[in-house]
């Protein structure tokens, strides 16, 4: 039981990325631009997929979910980060901190599961093309997408619930720029070993299981690509998969280093620097990586430009 004379924390203070005022203003400008490009870039992808019937395929169905997810993911953390950088004050109530912790963890978990579903889709498209239409029917697409969203949010209920059952009586300074579960957990005034074990078990399901699916899928894809007779076919398949792997490597590498490495007694600056990659950088890179060398998306952009009467400007 919690002792009577223990005072519960009512608010936390987010230390942020820097205490220097000039650095905070510079960070505000940089992060704001990244946030703006991230939201606009992912919205453009969603719009293009909706208006071009040639992009109504399973790959782009999952990409729509990923882009929507990225917009929600950055919006769950970055606007508050920007407000704190501008104000120079990182105060946040306990309730808001708990809400942010749940939403950001749920969305991050959903992304981990969704990337696994996207790798499975690429495996079927390249290695099992004759079965692809049946195996990845509209209903199966919906099942995989819904399972990713439901799995991410349900497992996060368990993780955050276990954390919030612990007493928080001080200190209340969080060495981070948002309320992230492993960092907040270190401030609990109780033994956290059981909670850490629960979180580690959930991380295995959320991270290692889909990562195993991804590695297996791409190993089989690589074998299939090497067997292709057509050089252009090999190049197209490899280019598509390489872009996906680039996102996977950055996202899983940083998240695993945060949630599955041995935790020290106190949060370090390394924790928040790692978090910058999967909170700020990865959502920005997704629209770039998936569209930069994608001819289908390029054609969709050209069609939209033509409808708007901007086609002559695209020609040189």
Describe it.
- The protein has 316 residues and is an all-alpha fold.
- The model is unreliable at 1-6 and 312-316 (pLDDT under 50).
- Helix content is 75%, strand content 3%.
- The protein has a 3-stranded mixed sheet with strand order 2-1-3.
- The chain contains 12 helices and 3 strands; from the N terminus they run βαααβαααβαααααα.
Write a short abstract of this structure.
The protein has 316 residues and is mostly helical. The chain contains twelve helices and three strands.
What descriptive keywords fit this protein?
316 residues, mainly alpha, 12 helices, 75% helix, globular, disordered N terminus, disordered C terminus
List the helices and strands and how they pair.
Blueprint: E1 11-14, H1 21-51, H2 58-75, H3 78-87, E2 91-93, H4 94-127, H5 129-135, H6 138-164, E3 173-174, H7 181-185, H8 193-227, H9 231-259, H10 269-292, H11 295-307, H12 311-314
Helix pairs in contact: 1-2, 1-3, 1-10, 1-11, 2-4, 2-10, 4-5, 4-6, 4-8, 4-9, 6-8, 8-9, 9-10
Radius of gyration: 22 Å
- Structural class, from secondary structure content? mainly alpha
**What is the ordering of alpha helices and beta strands?**
EHHHEHHHEHHHHHH
Which bin fits the share of residues in helices? over 70%
Span between N and C termini? 74 Å
How confident is the prediction overall: mean pLDDT? 86
User: How much of the residues is beta strand, in percent?
Assistant: under 5%
Number of helices: 12
The best one-word shape is globular
Q: Numbering strands along the chain, what is their spatial order in the largest sheet?
A: 2-1-3
């Amino acid at each position: 039981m919690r002792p009577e004379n223990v005072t519960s924390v009512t608010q936390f203070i987010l230390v942020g990325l820097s205490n220097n005022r000039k650095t905070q203003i510079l960070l505000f400008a940089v992060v704001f631009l990244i946030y703006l490009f991230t939201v606009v870039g992912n919205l453009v992808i969603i719009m293009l997929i909706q208006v071009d019937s040639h992009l109504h395929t399973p790959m782009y169905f999952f990409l729509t979910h990923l882009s929507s997810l990225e917009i929600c993911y950055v919006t769950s953390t970055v606007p508050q980060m920007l407000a704190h950088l501008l104000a120079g004050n990182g105060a946040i109530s306990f309730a808001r901190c708990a809400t942010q912790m749940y939403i950001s963890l749920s969305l991050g978990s959903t992304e981990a599961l969704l990337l696994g579903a996207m790798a499975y889709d690429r495996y079927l498209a390249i290695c099992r093309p004759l079965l692809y239409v049946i195996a990845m029917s509209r209903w199966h697409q919906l099942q995989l997408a819904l399972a990713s969203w439901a799995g991410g949010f349900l497992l996060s209920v368990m993780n955050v619930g276990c954390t919030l059952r612990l007493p928080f009586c001080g200190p209340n300074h969080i060495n981070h720029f948002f309320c992230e579960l492993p960092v907040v957990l270190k401030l609990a005034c109780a033994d956290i070993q059981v909670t850490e074990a629960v979180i580690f078990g959930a991380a295995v399901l959320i991270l290692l299981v889909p990562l195993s699916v991804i590695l297996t899928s791409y190993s089989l894809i690589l074998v299939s690509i090497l067997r292709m007779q057509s050089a252009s076919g090999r190049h197209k398949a490899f280019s598509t998969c390489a872009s996906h792997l680039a996102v996977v490597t950055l996202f899983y590498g940083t998240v695993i280093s945060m949630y599955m490495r041995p935790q020290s007694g106190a949060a370090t600056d390394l924790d928040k620097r790692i978090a910058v990659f999967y909170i700020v950088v990865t959502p920005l890179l997704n629209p770039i990586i998936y569209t930069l060398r994608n001819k289908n998306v390029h054609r969709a952009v050209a069609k939209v430009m033509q409808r708007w009467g901007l086609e002559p400007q695209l020609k040189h």
